[in-house]
Amino acid sequence: MASLIIRRAVQYTTNQPQTVCLSTVPHAMIAAFDPGFLARSPILSTLSWLAPQLDWQDWPSQHQLDTLNSPHDGPVIPRFRYPTDNEAEATYYEWTVYQHRTVPTRRENWHDLFNALCWLTFPRIKHALNLRHIDELKQQNGLHQRTRKRDAATLLDESGILLAYTDTQLIDALNQHHWNKLFVSNRQAWGKQIQPFVIGHALLERAHQPFIGMTAKVLPVRVEADFFSLPHTIQLAQLDKIVSVAFADTAFLSTPREMPPLPLLGIPGWHPDNLNPMFYQNLDYFRPKRDQTAAEK
Fold this sequence. Notes:
The chain is of the alpha/beta class. Helix content is 35%, strand content 9%. Helix 4 crosses helix 5 and helix 5 packs parallel to helix 10. It is globular, with a radius of gyration of 19 Å.
């Protein structure tokens, strides 16, 4: 197995006031099961390692989920459990995962199915996110009020992308909202110097019907140059390890502002129209930074 040395654990930026929102969606998520769902969009490419295992012709049973093999040698994956309707209403998700080592997973539900598949893909990070919620809840004496740390953890879990990179100038372009530089001038760098890995299961759910406006929150992860030539499963394992280790620092990801926004469909190959540079002229989607906008007025 090839090894990956990451010299700098995880870099993240601050002072990003824009927040991500997936609540305003023009089309309802498809409800019927699609056996070829992993091939519906390149946004789902992070989960491509699962394709050889999935021969489902209908929604998977709890047993089918529990018998999927993870590519990692990491922590034990919690069991997935289909709760009854009454249990689903009465159970607080984070405490159930922590105390019972089970992941409540609503049957025939795309959102929860993608959450389960993310547990298999990034088990260490998912454990770290769960522990972040539990640590915050314990400090609140069990109250379920959101803190900024919990908001950040939730955004990564629901709408996050791990952005592996070697060239800091590309991350500077991301942070400054220089979308033309990030997506057009450096289009050939994607897959060679920068590569997205979707961890947010809400993003994966929406990938069945992508729409202009889909925005992710980004956690940039600096990697070595050979990362991009590694097998996909090894890339996943390396990212899973380094990000989960970073969560051991209680100051890590303390606020959502540490994750800059990324117009998801601007990623080369993730929308057919982005072959045309004019695609990026939609300023309602590829928005400049607020301070830049103010300076131009």
